[in-house]
Amino acid sequence: MLFAVVDIETTGGYASQNGITEISIQIHDGNRIIESFESLVRPDHAIPPYIEALTGISNDLVSTAPKFESLAGKIYELLHDKVFVAHNVNFDFSFIRHQLEESGYKLQCKKLCTVRLSRKIFPGFPSYSLGKLCLSLNIELNNRHRAGGDAAATAVLLGLLLRADQQGYISQSLNKASKEQAIPPNLSGSAIERLPENPGVYYFKDQKGKVLYIGKAKNLKKRVCSHFTGNNSGKQRQEFLKNIYDIDFEICGTELMAFILEATEIKRLWPENNRAMKRFEQKYSLFSYTDQRGYIRLGVDKFKKQGPSLYNFNSLSEGHSLLRMLIKEHFLCERLCFIQKNRLACTGHEEGKCSGACIGKESAAAYNVRVKYAIRQLEDMLPTFAVIDQGRTEDEQSCLWVEKGQFYGMGYISAYTDVNNAALLKSTLSPLPSNDYILNLILSYTAANPGKKFNVEFSP
């Protein structure tokens, strides 16, 4: 088996918007280096000053170097039938694979990460950066932060790892079914192994324990592993993977509960990598207030977090449709409900469908009686029900509670709990914030699974 030990220097930290400035490939047969290749590379991007200070590679130095595409054929021949080895392998591999694809070559080969292998085979060191690891293992490291020096040291490290691997970690990593090399460099394999195959919510955390990302899953292990596959070489993904140090999770009884918990936790913690859920907000609401003349006014306007609302909508047309229904059934005034604005008397008054509140012909007291009936009808339209489904174990059931059209909370109950005892059922649940996104999830689920829905009579 032949290994290609690789190190590169680049203009930045992610492949899609940066270039390679230097590459070194050391072909290792398991005992020694049998072939070497090294070259400066002229990138399509300027080298930032801080990179130049770190590596010593300047724009002037690479100005006459070959571009990657002229080296691509040679690089591909050296790599395609070898095991690709690097310290933090996914960084080097992502750049080289991206550049080869841009040049018309598709690189597919097995990978080994000397960071991950060193943690397993040489446990207990204070740091596994290449410089600190070489110091701990007495590996000579010359010309640090240059491709040739770092690749040569990594090749020596590979030889030590091959000789010290009594547990067969290297062969396990090279196993076709192994996902080891796809895991981010700072995340332990045990963090993946302990993930269950249940529905739930997972939390990616950084080195300090801060939550970077929250996701939901039907199968926690499968979903988490899917984050580490694919060919996305963009900055966001590369930074995201590099900063993952740990994974927490919470098992849920059903996928629906995982959806709801995810939405709740994103709103609570606001992780920097969750974006779509943050943007979700209720858009419009039906509100009421009493004007200076004493008339209760109904109207649809943009949702206000601090203001009371009778009903929430995703669109303005949806809100107006409901309001027009209330106007028609309770003979309300279209002008006092803001359906008509530029008239003294509404058209409903002209047609005999409004008693003239708009022009003061009907008193506020008389008009308000019908408005209150309309609001009561609206409240009666809001359902109260429970969703009973499978739990996390065979001895429990999951329960979600919706009260008067608002999600109240969820939790787990005994398989022998009387689901008709509404007060007892509600008392066992954990209250959670409600919004239209969560309510729509529940309503869609009960529409598809009517047998899971239990309508209940409940007086708070």
TrEMBL record:
<dbReference type="InterPro" id="IPR000305">
    <property type="entry name" value="GIY-YIG_endonuc"/>
</dbReference>
<dbReference type="InterPro" id="IPR012337">
    <property type="entry name" value="RNaseH-like_sf"/>
</dbReference>
<dbReference type="Pfam" id="PF00929">
    <property type="entry name" value="RNase_T"/>
</dbReference>
<comment type="subunit">
    <text>DNA polymerase III contains a core (composed of alpha, epsilon and theta chains) that associates with a tau subunit. This core dimerizes to form the POLIII' complex. PolIII' associates with the gamma complex (composed of gamma, delta, delta', psi and chi chains) and with the beta chain to form the complete DNA polymerase III complex.</text>
</comment>
<feature type="domain" description="GIY-YIG">
    <location>
        <begin position="197"/>
        <end position="275"/>
    </location>
</feature>
<dbReference type="InterPro" id="IPR036397">
    <property type="entry name" value="RNaseH_sf"/>
</dbReference>
<dbReference type="InterPro" id="IPR050066">
    <property type="entry name" value="UvrABC_protein_C"/>
</dbReference>
<dbReference type="InterPro" id="IPR013520">
    <property type="entry name" value="Ribonucl_H"/>
</dbReference>
<dbReference type="Pfam" id="PF01541">
    <property type="entry name" value="GIY-YIG"/>
</dbReference>
<dbReference type="GO" id="GO:0006289">
    <property type="term" value="P:nucleotide-excision repair"/>
</dbReference>
<comment type="function">
    <text>DNA polymerase III is a complex, multichain enzyme responsible for most of the replicative synthesis in bacteria. The epsilon subunit contain the editing function and is a proofreading 3'-5' exonuclease.</text>
</comment>
<dbReference type="InterPro" id="IPR047296">
    <property type="entry name" value="GIY-YIG_UvrC_Cho"/>
</dbReference>
<dbReference type="GO" id="GO:0004527">
    <property type="term" value="F:exonuclease activity"/>
</dbReference>
<dbReference type="InterPro" id="IPR006054">
    <property type="entry name" value="DnaQ"/>
</dbReference>
<dbReference type="InterPro" id="IPR035901">
    <property type="entry name" value="GIY-YIG_endonuc_sf"/>
</dbReference>
<dbReference type="GO" id="GO:0003677">
    <property type="term" value="F:DNA binding"/>
</dbReference>
<dbReference type="GO" id="GO:0009380">
    <property type="term" value="C:excinuclease repair complex"/>
</dbReference>
<protein>
    <submittedName>
        <fullName>DNA polymerase-3 subunit epsilon</fullName>
    </submittedName>
</protein>
<dbReference type="GO" id="GO:0006260">
    <property type="term" value="P:DNA replication"/>
</dbReference>
<dbReference type="GO" id="GO:0003887">
    <property type="term" value="F:DNA-directed DNA polymerase activity"/>
</dbReference>
